[in-house]
Every structure is written in C-alpha cells, then in structure tokens.
Design a protein that fits this description.
302 residues, mainly alpha, 12 helices
Length: 302
C-alpha cells in the first residue's frame, strides 16, 4: 500500500506542472484548449505503439467497451475542466483557483464510501468538512492582488467552482475502472488512450474550426507547452497514476488515491504561484488554502 501512496505523490508533483502550463497559457496568446489537443494526439500515438509491445488483455468485450466509454467521458470532462480553469486564471489569483478546482477530490471520496464500501472514519469526515470550509474561506478573501483588471470582482470564483464540479465528475469516472477486476488486464495504456481520445474528439467538435479561423491553432508556444504536457502525462499516466490507483484499490483505499495526489499538487502549485508569480494571499485565503490541504490529509490518512 505504501508504494501506491508513493506513486500518487509523484503524480501530484507532476500535476503541479500541469498547473504551471495552464497558468502560462492564460498569460499568453496560446490557448490551453489547443495544447490539450496536441497532447492528446501525441499521447494516443504513444499508446498505440505500446499496444504492440504490451497488448491489452481483453477478458470481456463488454468490459472493453465500458472502460473505453468511461475513459472518453472522463477525457471530455477533463477538457472542460481546464477550459474553465484557464478562463478563471485570466482574471483571478492562479494559486487559489488551482486549489479550488483541485478540491473536487471530494467526489471520489464520497463515491468510494457510498458505492464501494470504503472506510469512513470521523477524521475523514472532518477532512471533508475542512475542504468545504477551505473553499468558502478562499472565496471570502479579497482576491484583488493579482494586478488583473477583473481581480476585484468574484467572477473568477464562480468559474473556479464550475471547474471544480466538472473535475469532480471527471475524477469519479477516472477512478471507476480501478474498482472493476475485469478491467485490470486492459492496462494503463488503454485507459490513458480512451481519456485522450475523449479530449481530442471534444476539441475537434467544439473548438478546432474556430482556432484555425483565428490563426490560433498552432504556434511555437503551443508546441513547447504540448511537449511539457507530454512529459508530465508520461510520468503520471504511464508510470504512476493508474498503477497507484490499482494498488490502493486492492487495499480498500482506491478513493484515497486522488486526495493524496491532489494534496501534493495544490501545495506544489501554491509554492509556484507565491514564488514565481509573486501572488499575495490575504489571511482568509491562506486560511482557506491551509484548510484544504489539512482536509485532504484527513481524507487520505484518516
């Protein structure tokens, strides 16, 4: 079980890198929607090549299609999560927005308790309450130290909350296959392929034509950001994330995988926003961030 938690910690650090990419795109003319598309295409290519080396073990056609459809739905949800997150980051404090969006881990915690019989101790419930309180405190902060024209209003908060809800659904979908013993043989490459397929399809259906028409489909920074995203995706998806979820699920802790990864992710990106972006947090906002991290700790290890 310890190895499962270690893999999720490494995943969390790499996810903090995703936040850096989204933040960088929000400050440039590069759209993270387009970056997501190019990441998805390259990741799908890597997965297809891997199928020849480690072919998926198909025990049931029904399971195959179920995992594929769940992954596609998760990919679509992931796409819109970052569309909303990038939009919020353009007008609000990046560190707080990232922590609020990542608080969506409550979804997998509740799912694990309600549907898969995972342990729900008093400490874990306190952790859930702390996360909710942390989001509220973050929203009560002044939120005007960003130097952005809309920094004084709270429009960024509502967008961040919408991103959190979409991410909550996405994470539940992503976790589901780990609770299906029949899906274990499909491997991490198939699960990753299905998620990336969903991202690529939804971008092509909703945003590709507009990006091409506005000459924003491809540029130098799109290439750079997509390569950085590929590196992060390879570390998280292929090496750590799905393997960590599977290990924890075997010990009855599958719902704790996301909380561990996201807790590390929030701390890593908060450090980036304060040291690199020079964002200043009010006392309420710092209290909110602290409560979120403490809540994640309670859910993960309670």
């Amino acid at each position: 079980m310890l190895w499962g938690f270690i893999m999720m910690i490494i995943t969390g650090i790499s996810w903090g890198g995703v936040g850096v990419v989204v933040s960088a795109c929000s400050r440039r003319s590069t759209s993270y929607k387009t970056v997501q598309f190019f990441i998805a295409l390259q990741m799908m290519l890597i997965c297809v090549v891997s199928f020849f080396i480690l072919p998926p073990q198909i025990n049931s056609q029904l399971t195959l299609w179920l995992v594929l459809l769940i992954g596609v739905a998760a990919g679509i949800g992931n796409y819109f999560t970052f569309v909303l997150t990038e939009k919020a980051m353009k007008i609000g404090p990046n560190g707080l927005i990232w922590s609020i969006m990542q608080s969506s881990l409550c979804g997998t915690f509740i799912m694990g308790i309600l549907f898969f019989g995972e342990r729900a101790s008093l400490i874990r419930y306190c952790g859930l309450i702390a996360i909710i309180a942390g989001v509220i405190f973050s929203g009560m902060g002044k939120g005007n130290d960003t130097g952005k024209p809309d920094g004084r209003n709270k429009s960024w908060l509502w967008i961040a909350l919408a991103a959190m809800l979409v991410a909550m659904l996405t994470q539940c979908l992503n976790t589901l296959p780990s609770f299906l013993p029949e899906a274990a043989g499909l491997g991490v490459f198939f699960r990753s392929f299905s998620v990336q397929l969903g991202t690529a399809v939804i971008f092509a259906a909703t945003s590709m034509a507009g990006a091409i028409r506005e000459h924003k489909f491809f540029n130098f920074w799109t290439l750079v950001m997509s390569w950085w995203g590929i590196l992060i995706s390879c570390i998280s998806s292929f090496l750590c994330f799905y393997r960590g979820l599977d290990v924890l699920a075997k010990y009855g802790c599958g719902g704790s995988g996301y909380p561990v990864a996201i807790g590390v992710c929030i701390v890593a990106f908060a450090a980036y926003s304060m040291t690199v972006l020079k964002e200043k947090f009010s006392r309420l906002e710092l209290t909110g961030l602290t409560l979120i991290v403490l809540g994640i700790t309670g859910i993960s290890f309670g």
